[in-house]
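Mods, move this if it's the wrong board.
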Amino acid sequence: MTGSAPAPDAADDDGSAEPMLPPIDENAETTRDPMEMVASTFMEELRTGKRPSVDDFASRFPQQAEEIRDLLPMLIALEDVKAKHELDSVKQPLPQQLEIEQLGEYKILREIGRGGMGVVFEALYEKINRRVAVKLLPWRFPSRSRWRKQFLREAQLAARLKHPHIVTVYNYGEDNGRCYYAMQLVEGVGLDRLIQRLRQGRGIVAVDEIHKEFRQHGQGCDALMPTSGLSNRILKRGAWHQFGKIAAQIASAIRYAHRQGTLHRDIKPANIMLDTRGALWITDFGLAMAKEHALTGQEVVAGTLRYMSPEQFEGQFDERSDIYSFGVTLYELCTLVPAFSTSTRFQLVKGIKAGERRRPKEIVPTIPADFDEIIMRCMAVNPNERYQQISDVLEDLTRFLGGQPLRDAKETFWSRLWKPW
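Not the wrong board. Structure tokens:
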């Protein structure tokens, strides 16, 4: 878990327990000042990412139009100052070692990872002697802060997902002004670390090394690990069948999340863990959102740049965007090189939008043609030319693992479009 803090999500706070204020009825009898009600509604919309317009509010409430044009710009300026102050807090480097011994009912044992939006600890839930992972938002924010609400939403979205390859969230709590949530402890390493290890030396990683690295350094997030996974005790470069099984596990978890109405929005190697039994786990739903809020056209650019789909730079996102990021992750696992590697952010974005990447098979000729094709279909620049659903990807991965031909690529969009009701 590494990286800088992402901007707070600007989409509707679907995970928040706080309801939106109802529309103002100017004819209703109330003791509140009408302008106070207007300002309250405006601020609520502003804080939940709706980007309200001063002119729009002046039109909606013509009797207060003059006051609205005077007051609301000042409220926006004050909110901007507050948001900048919170962002400045997040940008401050954390201490090398956080002196935290207890968070709620959890005894902190050691730190096992850091990311843009939190620090993860191995902890002990002493009541039942269970080891867990605890993710902490290490900065103290007011209760209405976007950062705090986004962290709560992350816990809420992840907690409703129950799947063998998604890290389980147990509960959420607050301690001395700090927010945290407890989740399953997976003894394993991130796929990013696995890729790094496969690049080195003989390109072989043994299960014992995974366990050793977790105990020495930590990386992720139960002792209740599934038995399905890799077929033997080592993973090596060019193990295409094993890589196919890894991909199928990840695709299965993404399919489940999508069926539950959740888009991950940050699929990348660092957010996927391999445990000592060869099982894969998706972690970190910090940027996740409900599908009904995906195609807003106003979404902030969120995610890790190298794994983002072209349409995300235009504020668009749906299931196919997760499929694209999955494809980039699979590309990196199979080739051991980034799909896009440039010296500047501008060149990187330009390359992603133009699809300037080589086929995996051009880099590693031994990659099976069908596996190469699956990756390329996931990474098509035009979303309509990708797999349209992650279940389509999983079906082709199953075909690949079973030695069967892939589905016709044209079926992924046009046949669905013309399929009879």
